[in-house]
Amino acid sequence: MIAVTLALVAAASAVPVTDVKPEVGLRTYVEPVKTIRSESSQQPEGPYSFSFETENGITREENGQVKEVLDEENKPQTVVVVRGAYSYTDNDGKIETINYYADETGFHAEGPSIPTVAPSRR
Prior knowledge:
Pfam family, one: Chitin_bind_4
Distance between the termini: 44 Å
Protein name: Larval cuticle protein 1
Keywords: Cuticle, Signal
Number of strands: 8
Order of helices and strands: HEEEEEEEE
GO molecular function: structural constituent of chitin-based larval cuticle
Radius of gyration: 19 Å
InterPro entries: CHIT_BIND_RR_consensus, Cuticle_Struct_Prot, Insect_cuticle
């Protein structure tokens, strides 16, 4: 899974991008963003971690741990608990950081641009 993700990042960064402006009829070459740091680790038992940073300030880090939980029928089931974060510069020039985790309860993300559910009134 990590190898595929890293391969896609590498492939995407190697492909020249053309910026099409149909209103003007011009096509201009856009230099791909370079990855300046990339690290990964995969353990045979299942745990993994990876992180990367690009020259335009995008960062991402993630790790996964194997956990045994009980399913709906009270049978043991192995899941991977994922925790991570990514950061980028928003349109206003501020650094936006999103923290997330995914486990047997689903995917959960928190950050300034992630809507929160208001508490229900009774």
